Amino acid sequence: MEKLKDTSLYRPIHIKNDIFREYGIDVPYHQAWLEKDVAYKSLHDNFAKYLRGKCSQATKDTLLQLLSQASYALGVVDFEKVMREICELNVQAEIWARESNPNYWSNTFFEGERYGEMYSNAAELFNAWILEARHLPILAMMDRIRIQIMELSYKRRNKCVDWETRLCQKIDAYVKNLMDSSRDIHVNCSNGVVFEVVSRPSYVVNLHEVVHKIGGNVEEYCSMYFITECYSNCYKETIHTISDVDKSDKSVDDIEIKPPTTKKKLDRPKKKRIPSQQALEGEKNDIYML
């Protein structure tokens, strides 16, 4: 537990190596991974002890679930969203969670590697998408995959033609939702240019720098990959068919496939054994008889 607090990159393989170095015990990797889960569970147990007597059992269970969501949140936005939900249920619980230093127990603030594991989900997803084409011959399979990709590109390219917003529909709706949800946030003016956004945590915004940098357009905050034009450009290219210029003119029936050239394997070398004394005497007797 102390090692987990000292470094946020304390991975199961490090637990395994430290136990072997300090105690001489070689534990399996899955057991080391379990120990890390136990360390995380102790944080939840401490939180449960703190909530004892401060709220009902139903509220306590909800707060524990929210703390688990905050532990595995991947971004600051998701983390702050969960913390606001905790604050709505119990302000003291939200203060306890922030004072317990989320840098040690939340994935949002972990630096460096986040998982330490490698997955092939993207490859498996694509493999399932081309399920019908996998069993075809190589050239037919490649052409079938090309047709699938072109059909997908055609549908998505036509889909964004009717979009009138500068951002993609989902991102545009998400930005509008954020703007609507922020209307009840209190803002304190400092000197006409600098404002304090009262929230948890609070933010200081300099409108002069913001307007000078982005021109007052909220859409400029978004990544260029969320723009409708960029989305359309991703699917405007054409995937051409496989060229058959260098393909042989011979028919498949005329092609003679010969077996591969193989070398005859050498026999097992004969063993040179030292003859026994009786064998030598027997050979001498045979010579004398001749």
From TrEMBL:
Alphabetized PANTHER family for the sequence: OS10G0104700 PROTEIN, POLYPROTEIN, PUTATIVE-RELATED
Record's protein name: Uncharacterized protein
Region span, Disordered: 252-290
Biased composition (Basic and acidic residues): 281-290
Composition skew (Basic residues), residue ranges: 261-274
